[in-house]
């Protein structure tokens, strides 16, 4: 059971990390589109490097375990913020879906972070120490 717990958490972290790494790659390769999208919501382009940092290094942290406890909390806040800024048009089913997805991700990240802060799992379970 411990093995399932240990590797289930790792697998979950990797699956979540893929989303953040893909989104950061999309933003990097489509800067003009990303800046225009942000501008539609009144956000200045100066915030984009911060978003890229959170997504890129947060995703890498989920995979590597380095700074994991902090990254999970920061990514949870990022997801909740993203939902509240970009996905509040609940009359559009697509926007509602993204809102729910962002809050579900925030919840999953908080659950994983809480388990690790409580010592239930190792923050770097990719190798035995």
Q: How is this structure best described in words?
A:
The chain has 129 residues and is an all-alpha fold. The chain has five helices and no strands. Helix 1 packs antiparallel against helix 3. The longest helix is centred in the N-terminal third of the chain and has 28 residues. It starts with a helix and ends in a 12-residue tail after the last helix. The mean pLDDT is 90.
Quick rundown:
The chain is mostly helical and 129 residues long.
Keywords:
5 helices; globular; mainly alpha; 129 residues
Strand content bin: under 5%
**SSE string, helices as H and strands as E:** HHHHH
Number of strands: 0
Helix content: over 70%
Please summarize the sheet with the most strands: none
| Low-confidence spans | none
Derived from helix and strand composition plus strand pairing, the structural class reads mainly alpha
What is the number of helical segments per DSSP (H or I, 4+ residues)? 5
**Which shape, going by the Cα principal axes?**
globular
N- and C-termini, Cα separation: 20 Å
Instruction: Please tell me how large the radius of gyration is.
Output: 16 Å
Blueprint of the fold:
Blueprint: H1 2-29, H2 31-40, H3 48-64, H4 68-86, H5 93-117
Helix pairs in contact: 1-3, 3-4, 4-5
């Amino acid at each position: 059971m411990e093995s399932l717990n240990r590797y289930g958490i790792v697998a979950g972290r990797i699956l979540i990390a893929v989303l953040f790494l893909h989104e950061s790659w999309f933003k990097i390769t489509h800067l003009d589109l990303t800046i225009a999208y942000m501008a539609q919501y009144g956000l200045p382009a100066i915030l984009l490097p911060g978003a890229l940092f959170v997504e890129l290094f947060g995703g890498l942290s989920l995979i590597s375990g380095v700074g994991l406890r902090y990254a999970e909390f920061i990514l949870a806040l990022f997801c909740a913020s993203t939902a509240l800024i970009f996905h509040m048009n609940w009359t559009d089913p697509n926007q509602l879906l993204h809102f729910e997805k962002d809050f579900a991700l925030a919840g999953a990240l908080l659950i994983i972070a809480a388990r690790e802060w409580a010592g239930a799992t190792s923050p770097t379970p990719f190798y035995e120490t």
